[in-house]
Amino acid sequence: MVELDHVNKWFGDLHVLQDINLSIKQGEVVVVIGPSGSGKSTLCRAINRLETINDGHISLDGQPLPEEGKQLAQLRAEVGMVFQSFNLFAHKTILENVTLGPIRVRKQKKEDAERRAKELLDRVGVGQQANKYPAQLSGGQQQRVAIARALAMDPKVMLFDEPTSALDPEMIKEVLDVMVDLAERGMTMVVVTHEMGFARTAANRVVFMAEGQIVEENTPEEFFTNPQSDRAKDFLGKILKH
Ligand SMILES: Nc1ncnc2c1ncn2[C@@H]1O[C@H](COP(=O)(O)OP(=O)(O)O)[C@@H](O)[C@H]1O
Ligand SMILES: [Mg+2]
């Protein structure tokens, strides 16, 4: 579903993605883990074409990522992205936040988009909040709305970039539960997270990145209990102490 083939990217002198090769099958859930600054967000942004790459190829569902214009908007509709900050439109209701993309980009009729939005909001547990504004919701609720908004576009892949790291601890689980449900329904997912519980429950594979490289790839169980590289051992030593 997603193929990265010898992908390289520089920010000036910084070689932020170094010969990345990664192949993600339909329905696969891949957790990307690694120290801050290792290129995890850049990798997600490259898959969504929010960042250009300098070298190599990325394809989605067999098609190379488009450069610009209408096809690029189409690609963005097919790759759902959920960030650390929820990025909801403050002056639109929850329902409007979720229907905006389907109406504008997918050209759905308002009533169809609203029906589907309500289903999705119910599914992520915030159906009662549809007519409220983002500021009236908790962080965990807003992040679940952000997930519903991405799903409303019927994406082929969902990218999550540290979706729970801005949340208070008691709200992390409600967001992870929605993500686990999505994984169980067969969504293809790339998830940057340090939540080991999620990785163990939902991921097929853990990809460990450090300094722009994929250093190690393994099943969650193997990765967490038996990391191979010194960098992975060092990293896990640090996050496990917390
Ligand atoms: N737009 C940018 N311009 C210059 N450097 C950047 C930019 N975005 C990220 N970087 C740098 O690239 C490296 C990788 O960043 P990032 O992909 O955000 O890492 P991670 O998500 O793993 O913390 C960092 O050193 C960061 O400072
Ligand atoms: Mg990041």
Automatic annotation (TrEMBL):
Tagged with keyword Lipid metabolism: no
Keyword Isomerase: no
Lipid bilayer topology: Peripheral membrane protein
InterPro entries: AAA+_ATPase, ABC_ATPase_HisP-typ, ABC_transporter-like_ATP-bd, ABC_transporter-like_CS, MetN_ABC_transporter-like, P-loop_NTPase
Subcellular location as annotated: Cell membrane
Signal peptide extent: none
Recorded GO MF terms: ATP binding
Keywords noted in UniProt: Amino-acid transport, ATP-binding, Cell membrane, Membrane, Nucleotide-binding, Transport
Chief localization: membrane
Organism: Nocardioides jiangsuensis
Pfam families, A to Z: ABC_tran
Similarity comment: family membership: Belongs to the ABC transporter superfamily.
PROSITE patterns given in the database record: ABC_TRANSPORTER_1, ABC_TRANSPORTER_2
Highest taxon of the lineage: Bacteria
UniProt domain ABC transporter: residue ranges: 2-236
Protein name, per record: Amino acid ABC transporter ATP-binding protein
